[in-house]
Amino acid sequence: PGLQREFWVENLPENHTIVLRTMINSVPGRNYIQTNGEIQLTGPPAQPDSARLGLELLAIIRLKAHSPTRLTTWFIPNPVIPNPFDPTGKEPDPNSGFGLVEKSGCKTCHDENQNLTGPSFTAIAKKYKTGVLTNQTLAAKVLGGGTGVWGENVMIAHPHLKQIEAIKMVEWILSLDPDDQYGEWFSLPPADTTVKHPGDGEKLPGVHPSYDLSQARPEGFHPRVGGLDFLPDGRMVVCTWDGYVYLLGNLQQPDPEKIEVKTIAEGLAEPLGLKVVDGKIYVLQKQELTLLIDHNGDDVADEYANICNSWPVSANYHEFAFGLEYKDGFFYATLSSPLGKAEPHYPERGSAIKINGETGSYEVIANGFRTPNGLGMSPEGTLFVSDNQGNWLPANKIVEVRKGAFYGYRSRDPELMKDWEETAPMLWLQQADIANSPSQMIFSQDGPYTGQILVGDVTHGGVKRVFTEKVNGVSQGVTFRFTQGLESGVNRLRYGPDGAIYTGGVGAAGNWGQEGKDRYGLQRLRYNGKTTFEMLAVRAKADGMEIEFTEPLPEGSILSPEDFGIKQWRYVPTPAYGGPKTDEKTLEVSRIAISPERNKVRLYLGEMEKGHVIYLHLSPRIKSQFGQQLWSTECMVHAE
User: Of 182, 119, 181, 169, whose CA–CA distance to 146 is shortest?
Assistant: First the structure.
């Protein structure tokens, strides 16, 4: 095997030379390196086993000024570093059950032995007995998708597979249980007969009435948005998960087909954060914070300057870098933890980091995160992070970052971390009920919602709204459904210079995307000033809670305890994926008081407990003084 590289030099001043220094590995000897330029090689001489193990040489190459310099390298025939993802040392048969699983995307959500988003393959094998009916039924679920057997997480459909391929995959999975006698025959879970309505135990029906939705991309431009921000002249910069950076102009045109899109950078490694600072574009790659520099004024990046690449990264697919926020010379980002049998588990993974924009140094400011895809900064500079349900995380959550805090994800080294004190989140987001994969946060600038947190969600979709308050110096919050109706799951949010919210969508295999939606998106939500009747805030009190509405109730309103359904529970982190509602109980309303302005309702409750989630449901019969129905009847309160 060999590799040929070609180097071109342009605009080199007279009497100047460019010298390239590079390490060349895995070559049998010096004569296996060829160039049409001048080269100097330093390193150990060839040994009897060099043809098998290879040499490591330092090459110093003087590049030609007026013609291309070619560098050809011939390598030893076999790699000397074992592939950690192929323990057998050979490629699997692509048409076998194992081979089909490997290339189908199943391992995005499943591991052979460890529960991830979905159950481990071994757990599935132990649950079911092998048989024709079981194999066919499970194959149908692989093809068509489903939910309910292992919790509320949705298994996506795989319509591109043939039935025989799905059956082969199922047969391989079930073969992982050598003692098949303890499994069970396939059975369907009981049907859910509960009647649900949009905004009342179910996702919202569409776009929030106080906002108008419009496209922020022309047809044919399909960005899987990893980050977005705005230049001082109003143009938008977007980076995409697949490694591109785009510049969008004419955004305010009513016809989205007149929006101009220009590629300004490409070839980046999973960029999932972008921030414009003083007109300069910074992009957060998996392994590096990069400054894009345009030297000749054509808006295309000529130089990708490294600001910081000091944090550790392995080949594990789940080691993302998320962001990006900036304040007073420092950038803020998060590093997700590896999943599966990842080795090594670097201690810096699963952390929030602070990067010095001038020196490029970084420091860990908090640890214990799993998939901290949501980052947000308040106008005062307080940092917030959202994290995804998983092992050691019984639900999704949002934390107010405190320096030195540990937030509970222990899979890196459960034994070492077993006694580490976990800092409680600001609020929990129950999986499937209100969130699934919370993403970027922004602080609302619109009407009555000003100052509240808006948080996107990739898989549950839409945007949630969070009211926060401090009680005895500790932040706690309540989460409301806010809007759906977007073209894709929401990964990134930013306010534009026009005062509108721009939503960047994304999607992928597994459960990384909203079911039935596109895997890309770029849209605009503009506040229209209309009043929508809903809960604006819920404040936990020592003896109950206070509900504040966006509009007053009708004069003479009479509310009864039957108008309020209230439950509380707590979560217990375990090594298993997710977790149940523990100690769930119903809270009774003993007394109700309506404020003189009729926009607040005080509920007096008994047996409220600290550190619990409180679910509040309002009767759909509650209406405003103008006859408006509630946009959403429910919320989740975290009372610490």
Answer: 119
For 376-412, write each residue's pLDDT tens digit: 999 999 999 999 999 999 999 999 999 999 999 998 8
Name residue, tokens 């029906």: 205
H or E element, residue 132: helix 132-144
State both tokens at 404: 């030195």
Pull the structure tokens for residue 493: 């949010």
Out of 77-86, 94-103, 528-537, the most confident range is 528-537
Whether residue 55 contacts residue 44, with contact meaning beta carbons closer than 8 Å, is answered with yes
Strands 245-249 and 438-443 come out as unpaired
What does the pLDDT look like over 258-290, one tens digit per residue? Answer: 999 999 999 999 999 999 999 999 999 999 999
In 3D, which of 567, 550, 568 has the Cα closest to residue 622? 550
| Cα–Cα–Cα angle for 423, 426, 427, rounded to 5 degrees | 115
Residue with tokens 């009864």: 560
Beta bridge partners of 399: 385
* 3 state DSSP class of 138: helix
Please tell me whether residue 239 adopts helix, strand or coil conformation. strand
β-strands 197-198, 201-202 pairing: parallel
Nearest alpha-carbon partner for 506 in 240, 225, 283, 273: 225
136: tokens are 């066919």
Q: Are strands 362-367 and 351-356 parallel, antiparallel or unpaired?
A: antiparallel
CB 332 within 8 A of CB 375: yes
Q: Six-digit token pair at 565?
A: 């359904």
Give the largest Cα separation in the chain, rounded: 97
Res. 342 pLDDT band, cuts 50 70 90: low
Give the 3-state secondary structure of 91-110. CCCCCCHHHHHHHHCHHHCC
DSSP 4: E
- Three-state DSSP at 512 gives coil
Structure tokens at 640: 């610490």
Q: Which residue has the tokens 């992009």?
A: 283
Q: What DSSP string describes 149-218?
A: SSSSPPBPP-TTS-HHHHHHHHHHHHTT-S-GGG-B---PPPP-----EETBEE--SSS-TTEEEEE-S-
Q: What distance in Å separates the CA atoms of residue 573 and residue 320, rounded to the nearest whole number?
A: 23
3-state secondary structure (DSSP) of residue 258: helix
C-beta contacts of 592-597 below 8 A and 24+ residues apart: 592/559, 592/560, 592/561, 594/553, 594/557, 594/559, 597/552
The string of pLDDT tens digits covering residues 243-266 is 999 999 999 989 999 999 999 999
First to last CA, the chain: 61
**Tokens 């776009």 belong to residue:** 207
Asked if residues 271 and 240 have their Cβ atoms less than 8 Å apart, the reply is: yes
Distance from C-alpha of 538 to C-alpha of 543, rounded to nearest angstrom: 14
H or E element in which residue 135 lies: helix 132-144
Q: What sign results for the dihedral spanned by CA atoms 625, 629, 631, 633?
A: positive
CA distances from 97 to 68, 102, 491 (A): 48, 9, 34
Residue 406's identity, in one-letter code, is: F
- Which whole number is the average pLDDT over 133-160? 74
Collapsing DSSP to helix, strand or coil, 492 comes out as strand
Are 170 and 162 within 8 A, CB to CB? no
pLDDT in the model for residue 202:
84
- Could you give the CA distance from residue 370 to residue 425 in angstroms, rounded to a whole number? 14
Distance between CA 367 and CA 370 in Å, rounded? 9
Highest mean pLDDT (candidates 12-26, 102-116, 174-188, 302-316) = 302-316
C-alpha distance from residue 403 to each of 329, 423, 443 (Å): 18, 11, 21
Distance CA 135, CA 129 (A): 9
